[in-house]
Amino acid sequence: MTARQQKNHLRAIALSIFVATLAWTALAMTAAPAFAADLQAGQARGASELQSQATSKSITTNRTFTWVKVGKQLYQWSNYQKAAKNGTLKPRETSTSYFEFKGGCQKLISVSTPKSSKSTIIAAKPITKYDYMKYNLKKVGSATITYVIKYVNDAGTTVTNKFVEKHRITHYSNPLSMLKVGSTDYAAKLKSAPQYVTKKAISGKVVARAAKGWKLMKIRRVNSAIQSGEYVPQKQVKNGTSVNIKKSAKSVLEVICYNTKLKYYESVILSPSFKYSVIYG
After folding, report:
1. 105, 140 contact by CB (below 8 A)
2. Are strands 56-70 and 141-152 parallel, antiparallel or unpaired?
3. CA neighbours within 13 Å on the CB side: how many for 167?
4. Backbone angles phi, psi at 192, to 5 degrees
5. What are the CA-CA distances from residue 45 to residues 58, 184, 244 (Å)?
6. Which of 10, 146, 147, 188 has the maximal Cβ count within 10 Å?
């Protein structure tokens, strides 16, 4: 190759590099706005996702309920109706449980239709006006109720809460082998129902003993004047000490026991009169 040819060859290489450089520059200038837009969109999506994570969450609440069957009726130990005239309790065939709003509730958005694993044992229906679930208890057995509530809590977070509730319906069993007040032992009166109306003052030393499979938890005197809707603090009664609940008193004597096998609480009540024979524990 002559010197002239070498010079022309170098010029051609330089020109091709220059053209390539111009092309890459033009491409970069064209792509930059699109890249910037993609970057901004990605940042926006990330911010939106972070914001979404900050303002919404999903939780699961597991709850266990034990309902007790008394004759043809059903009740929960802390939820009573008025006593029947024969001195025993006439409980509810249905009962309720309020939703658990984590962090409070500014607004209830929705409640799904509850699903029962065994609708022949228990069914449920939401009462959204008052934020509770109503259960229809049908017979002894076990079943699972599932439903989802969605609400906005006090912090402004949208919460989706799945409830998984295990319900067990069992027969009533007297938790006491002895409930003696003065010289009278009322344990036998509580054999078929958790409440007995003495029709006289409840006065004397209280001695309570749990039956086999039960643990004595608490003895207390509770105000029972629910007509006023007021709650009066309970007075604890130490086992072996005396009480004096007059027939006209607006109080009852309550004994609470725990079933160590089935793991639920049972409450039995002595009432001096029919008028004040209901409590909400």
Report:
1. no
2. unpaired
3. 34
4. -110, -10
5. 21, 75, 71
6. 147
Distance separating alpha carbons of residues 168 and 277, to the nearest angstrom: 26
CA 129, distance to chain mean position in Å, is 17
The single residue listed with the structure tokens 């709850």 is 63
**How far is residue 198 from each of residues 85, 90, 91, 233, 271, measured CA to CA in Å?**
12, 16, 19, 23, 6
**Segment 174-221, tens digit of pLDDT:** 999 999 999 999 999 998 878 888 989 999 999 999 999 999 999 999
Contacting residues for 221 by C-beta, under 8 A, at least 6 apart: 234, 235, 237, 243, 245, 251, 252, 253, 254
Whether domain 56-171 has CATH 2.60.40: the reply is: yes
Nearest to 98 by CA among 141, 55, 151: 151
Rounded Cα–Cα distance for residues 134 and 132 (Å): 7
φ, ψ (nearest 5 deg) of residue 20: -65, -40
- Asked if residue 243 lies in contact with residue 252, where contact means CB atoms within 8 angstroms, the answer is no
